[in-house]
Design a protein that fits this description.
The protein is α/β, with parallel strands linked by helices. The chain is built from 25 helices and 21 strands. This is Pre-mRNA-splicing factor ATP-dependent RNA helicase PRP16.
Length: 659
C-alpha cells in the first residue's frame, strides 16, 4: 500500500517548501539563526532536515538534530523522513525519545523530543555532535523548547559554526525573532483555501454526543468523494468513545434503512481511525494511508493541530477543548485537566479543513464563547507547570537564577519558589540553595525528582534491584487491564497480586511473577495484565540499570525484606504524604487537602486503613483520589523531612486553589 519511491519524490517536489529550497538554504548559509514560518503541511518538518543534509551539513561527521514537542510526532516524522530518504529507521535517519533510542553511528538526521535535547546538554555542554539544530513546532511553546531557547541564546556566541533554525506556524514568530536579536524571518509562501466556520448556536452539553451526531450527518449527506473528516478530541477516553459511538450510530441507521432487525456489524463506506499518544506506532501510521472508496474519519488529540498533517481533509469538527498539564502550586502537583482551547488553537484546527480545497469547520461552541471565554493564545507551558525537574537540570548546567535566565516569558514567581521548596525537601538542594551531592546524581536521571531519589536511596539501603523494577513500572501506562465487559473477573485477577500494605510493592510483585513466568505474553493475558506495558517496563529497567552502572551506583537486592523498600519509597515521597482522618479519609500533611484512596488500590478494602501513607499520584475528579499508595511509619516521614513542613510552611486558607 505504500507509495513507490518515485511517487514519493514527486510528492516531495510538489510541497511549498521544495519550491523555495534554494532561497531557504541561502538564508541559512548567511545567518546563524533563522526563523521559518509556514502553513501546516508546507513541508517544514519533513523537508528541512533533508535539504540541510543534501547541502552538505553532515559531510564532516556532524549531525542534524530536529526537535519535536511530542513523542508521537518525533517517531512519526522520523519514520516518514526515513521512507522519503529510502532507509530503515535508525540508519541514516533515526529518532530518540525518553527510554527509546532508535539511532546508530550511521545516523545523520536525528529527530527527538525537545526534552531529550535538553538532557544532552548534561553530557555535552557545547553540543559538539551537531552543526544544525531545527527547533520544530516552536509555536507550541513547550517547557523544554522555552528552556532550550535560553540555553541556545547563551551558547550561540561560543559555537559560531552552529546553525539554529526555528520553525513555527504563523503565531509567535515575531517574538522568536526578537528573542534572538532580530533574526531574519523567512515565510514559505503557501496557498490555503477558504474554510467556512460554523459555530454551534447553543452551548453543547456533551461534546462526544454532539460530535457523533455531526459526523454521521456529514457522512450521510455528502458524497464520499467530497472529502474526509478530522475530529479534534481531548484524549484517549473521549476518542475511543467517539469512534465506538459513531460506528454504532451508523450501523444502527444502516440496519433501519435496510429494514432489518439484525444489524450489519461492518460498515463498507467509512474508516474510523483514532490517533493518540498511547497507540502503537503502526496503528498511528494508519491515519496517513489512503482509503479508496471509503470516507476516512480521523479522531485525534491536539497532535493533528499542527504536528501531523493528514491530507484530504474537507471537514473539521472541533470539540473546543484540550487536555493540558496544569500546575497547582498549593497541592504541589501537576495534573492533566480538560480546559477550553485558545482562539489561536481554534483557528489552527479549522485551518486543517482548507489544505486541499475549500472546507468547512464545525465548532462545538458558540461564537460568544469563542470571543468571551477563550484566551487569544494558549498559555505557555512554563507558566502552568511544575518546574522542579527543570530547575534541577538548569542548576546542574550551572544556571543558578531562573529569574536572570533569558526566557521569552518568565514563569510565575510562586511556582519557582514552590519548586525550589520541593527540591529542598527531597534533599536535592541544601539550605543555601546549592545542589547537594544527591541532587547532582538525581539530575543525571531522566526521571522526576521523587523517583530518582528513591532509586539513589535504595542503592544506599541495599534494595536498588527492587526499586529499579518499581520505578520502571511507574514509568509506563497502566499495567492492569480492565475490559468493560469483564470488569469483575479482571478485578479479581488483580487482587491476586495485591500486597496489602503497598501498591508499589504490588507492582513489584506483578513484575516478579511475570519474570518467573518467562516474561510470557499468554500469562499476561490470562492475568489481565497489559503485555505491552510490562515489556516497556522491562526495557526501561534495562536502560536505567545501564545508567546506574555507568555512574557506579550499586545495584543490590534486599531479598525478602520489603520494609526497607517501603522506607526508600517514603524517602522520595515525603512530599506526598497523608494522615488518616476519619473512617476512610486522609489529609495531606503539606496542606491539609482532603484525600481518598482510589478504589483500585491494594489498600482499599484490605481491612483497616494505615494511619500514614505516601502516594505516587493524585487524580482530580469529583473527589481527590490518591493512587499508588504505600503505608509508612510516621517516624520514617520525620526522618525524610516532612516534619519541616509543619515548622516552615504556613497554610494560608485563603489561597486560591484554581488554575
Ligand atoms: P509542516 O511541517 O510544514 O506542517 P510536513 O513536513 O509535516 O509539513 O508535511 C508535508 C507533507 O508531507 C504533508 O502533505 C503531509 O501530509 C505529508 N506527510 C507527512 N507525514 C506523512 C506520512 N507519515 N505519510 C504520508 N504523508 C505524510
Ligand atoms: Mg511540522
Amino acid at each position: 500500500t505504500a507509495a513507490s519511491f518515485a511517487e514519493i519524490q514527486r510528492m516531495r517536489k510538489s510541497l511549498p517548501a521544495y519550491k523555495v529550497r534554494s532561497e531557504l538554504l541561502q538564508i541559512i548559509r548567511d545567518h546563524q539563526v533563522v526563523i521559518i514560518i509556514g502553513e501546516t503541511g508546507s513541508g517544514k518538518t519533513t523537508q528541512l532536515a533533508q535539504f540541510l543534509k543534501e547541502d552538505g551539513y553532515c559531510n564532516d561527521g556532524h549531525l542534524i538534530g530536529c526537535t519535536q514537542p511530542r513523542r508521537v510526532a518525533a517517531m512519526s516524522v522520523a519514520t516518514r523522513v526515513a521512507l522519503e530518504v529510502g532507509v530503515e529507521i535508525g540508519d541514516e535517519v533515526g529518532y530518540s525519545i525518553r527510554f527509546e533510542d532508535k539511532t546508530s553511528w550511521r545516523t545523520k538526521i536525528k529527530f527527538m523530543t525537545d526534552g531529550i535535547l535538553l538532557r544532552e546538554f548534561v553530557t555535552s555542554k557545547m553540543l559538539e555532535k551537531y552543526n544544525c539544530i531545527i527547533m520544530d513546532e516552536a509555536h507550541e511553546r513547550s517547557l523544554s523548547t522555552d528552556i532550550l531557547f535560553g540555553i541556545f541564546k547563551n551558547l550561540l556566541s561560543s559555537r559560531k559554526d552552529l546553525k539554529l533554525i526555528v520553525t513555527s506556524a504563523t503565531m509567535n514568530a515575531n517574538r522568536f525573532s526578537q528573542f534572538f536579536g532580530g533574526a531574519p524571518m523567512f515565510t514559505i509562501p503557501g496557498r490555503t483555501h477558504p474554510v467556512q466556520i460554523v459555530f454551534s448556536r447553543q452551548p453543547v452539553s456533551d461534546y462526544v454526543e454532539s460530535t457523533i451526531l455531526q459526523a454521521s450527518k456529514l457522512h450521510l449527506s455528502n458524497p464520499i468523494e467530497s472529502g474526509d473528516i478530522l475530529i479534534f478530541m481531548t484524549g484517549q477516553e473521549d476518542i475511543e468513545a467517539t469512534c465506538e459511538g459513531l460506528k454504532e450510530r451508523l450501523i444502527d441507521i444502516n440496519s433501519k434503512k435496510k429494514n432489518r432487525n439484525s444489524a450489519d456489524s461492518e460498515l463498507s463506506d467509512i474508516e474510523i481511525l483514532p490517533i493518540y499518544s498511547a497507540l502503537p506506532a503502526d496503528v498511528q501510521n494508519k491515519v496517513f494511508e489512503p482509503t479508496p472508496n471509503k470516507r476516512k474519519v480521523v479522531v485525534a488529540t491536539n497532535i493533528a493541530e499542527t504536528s501531523l498533517t493528514i491530507d484530504g481533509i474537507k471537514f473539521v469538527i472541533d470539540c473546543g477543548y484540550v487536555k493540558l498539564k496544569v500546575y497547582n502550586p498549593q497541592i504541589g502537583l501537576d495534573s492533566l485537566q480538560i480546559v477550553p482551547i485558545s482562539m489561536a488553537s481554534a483557528n489552527q484546527r479549522s485551518g486543517r479543513a482548507g489544505r486541499t480545497g475549500p472546507g468547512v469547520a464545525y465548532r462545538l461552541f458558540t461564537e460568544d464563547s469563542y470571543f468571551d471565554d477563550m484566551y487569544v493564545q494558549t498559555i505557555p507551558e512554563i507558566q502552568r507547570t511544575n518546574l522542579s525537574n527543570t530547575i534541577l537540570l538548569l542548576r546542574h548546567l550551572g544556571v543558578r537564577d531562573l529569574m536572570a535566565f533569558p526566557l521569552i516569558d518568565p514563569p510565575p514567581e510562586q511556582s519557582i519558589i514552590s519548586s525550589l521548596f520541593d527540591l529542598w525537601t527531597v534533599g536535592a538542594l541544601d539550605n543555601f540553595g546549592a545542589l547537594t551531592k544527591l541532587g547532582i546524581q538525581m539530575a543525571s536521571f531522566p526521571l522526576q525528582p521523587s523517583l530518582s531519589k528513591m532509586l539513589l536511596i535504595a542503592s544506599q539501603s541495599g534494595c536498588s534491584e527492587e526499586m529499579l523494577t518499581i520505578v520502571s513500572m511507574l514509568s509506563v501506562p497502566q499495567v492492569f487491564y480492565r475490559p468493560r465487559e469483564r470488569e469483575e473477573e479482571s478485578d479479581q485477577a488483580r487482587t491476586r497480586f495485591f500486597v496489602p500494605e503497598s501498591d508499589h510493592l504490588t507492582l513489584l510483585n506483578v513484575y516478579a511473577q511475570w519474570k518467573a513466568n518467562s516474561y510470557s505474553a499468554g500469562w499476561c493475558k490470562r492475568n489481565f495484565l497489559q503485555y505491552k506495558s510490562l515489556q516497556r517496563a522491562k526495557s526501561i529497567r534495562v536502560q536505567l540499570s545501564a545508567l546506574m552502572q555507568k555512574k557506579s551506583i550499586s545495584i543490590v537486592s534486599s531479598g525478602t525484606d520489603w520494609d526497607v523498600i517501603r522506607k526508600c519509597i517514603c524517602s522520595g515521597s515525603a512530599d506526598q504524604a497523608a494522615r488518616l482522618s476519619g473512617l476512610n479519609k486522609y489529609v495531606q500533611l503539606r496542606n491539609g487537602l482532603e484525600l481518598r484512596v482510589h478504589p483500585a488500590s491494594a489498600l482499599f478494602g484490605a481491612g483497616d486503613l494505615p494511619s500514614y501513607v505516601v502516594y505516587h499520584e493524585m487524580l482530580l475528579t469529583s473527589n481527590e483520589y490518591i493512587n499508588v499508595v504505600t503505608a509508612v511509619d510516621p517516624l520514617w516521614l520525620m526522618n525524610y523531612g516532612v516534619v519541616y513542613y509543619n515548622a516552615s510552611r504556613r497554610v494560608d486558607e485563603e489561597e486560591d486553589v484554581g488554575l
